Amino acid sequence: MEYFKILDDMFKEFSEYKDIEKGKGIRGKLVTIISPSSSKLAAVIEAIHLASLLHDDVIDEADKRRGVISINAKYGDHTAVMLGDIVYSKAFYELIDFGSEIAKVVSNAVYLLSQGELEDVKLSKSINLDKDKYMQMIYKKTASLIEAACAAAALIEGYDKKDFMKYGKNIGIAFQIIDDLLDITQDEKTLGKPAMHDFYEGKVTLPFIYLFEAINNEEKEKSQEADVNEFDSLSESSLAQALGESVPEEQKEPEEETQENAQNNDNKTKQSNSNIDITKEITSAVTNGVVSAVSSLPDEHNVKKILNSMEVTIKFNFKD
In CATH, what number is assigned to the domain containing residue 91? Predict the structure, then answer.
C-alpha cells in the first residue's frame, strides 16, 4: 500500500523504526476507500496511530507487539517514548499541509485519544462495572482517531463529514470490543501479544462486565470485596461458564447427591440457560452498529466500496 511507503520514508533515518512490525493499516485503508488519492493523509493518520502504540506499550509494559519484540522491550522505555514523540511531531508537521479544518479534526482526535488512555489507566485501578464509562473510554481511546480519519477523507472529497464520522465511530467501537473479546478467547500466537493481558492488568472490559452480570451472588461479593489486583479471584470455572464453555471435570468439586443439591443443580441449570451469551451479545452489537452507520450514508458516498470492504475491515487487524 502506497501510504505505508510514504510512512516508511518519513522515518527511514531512525534505525529503531525499522524494527516496528506493521499492522494492516485499517485507518489508512478507510481514508483511501473514501478518498482514493489521499495516500499522504492515510500515512499521517497511520503515523499518529503508531506513535500512540509506542507510548501505549510503555504504559502497559508490553514486551510484544504484533508478534515481535516491542520497541520498549528492545531499546528501553526512554527510546520508545522519544521515538513516539518524534513520530507524533512529524505527523503534525505534515498535517498542516491539509488545511486548518482537517488539522483541527485530526488533532482533536489525538486530544481525545490521550484522554482515553488516561481514563483507561484510571479505570484499571478499580473494578469498573459501568458500561457507559467503558464505552466512553473506548470511543476516545480507539474510535476517535478512526472517526477523524473518515471525516478528514470526506472533507477532502467535499462530502458532509457527519455521516462519515458516524461510520468511523461505529467501526472503531466495534474494533475495540472485538479486540477485548479476543484478548480472552485467543492465544498469544494468534493475537501477536500476550493473551489475557487486560485481565491481569485489572482492566474490566465489556466481556468481564457481562461476566459479572452472569456469575452467582457469592462470586459477585468476592469480586466486589477484592482489590483490583485480586480480580483473578473469580474462579476459572465461573469465567468458563459465563463464556458458554464447558468446565473441565477435574476443576469440579464432587458433591454428595442430596435432595438439596439436586435442587441447587436444577437452579444452576436454569441460571446457566439464562446467562448472557457474551459472544452473541457483542457480535450483535457490533453488527447493528456498523450496519446502522453504513445505512446512513447516501449512495454517492462510495457505499458499495465501504460495504465490500466491511468484512475485511472487521477482520482486518486485531493485533493493534
Answer: 1.10.600.10
Residue 318's pLDDT band (boundaries 50, 70, 90)?
A: very low
Query: What's the total number of domains in the chain?
Result: 1
In a domain, 210, yes or no: no
For residue 277, is it within any domain?
A: no
pTM of the model: 0.71
Domain assignment of residue 57, given as a range? 2-195+304-315
What's the pLDDT tens digit per position in 27-67?
999 999 999 999 999 999 999 999 999 999 998 888 888 88
143 is a domain residue: yes
Asked whether residue 289 is domain-assigned, the answer is no
With b for 16 or more beta-carbon neighbours within 10 A and e for fewer, the 272-294 pattern comes to eeebbebeeebbeebeebbeebb
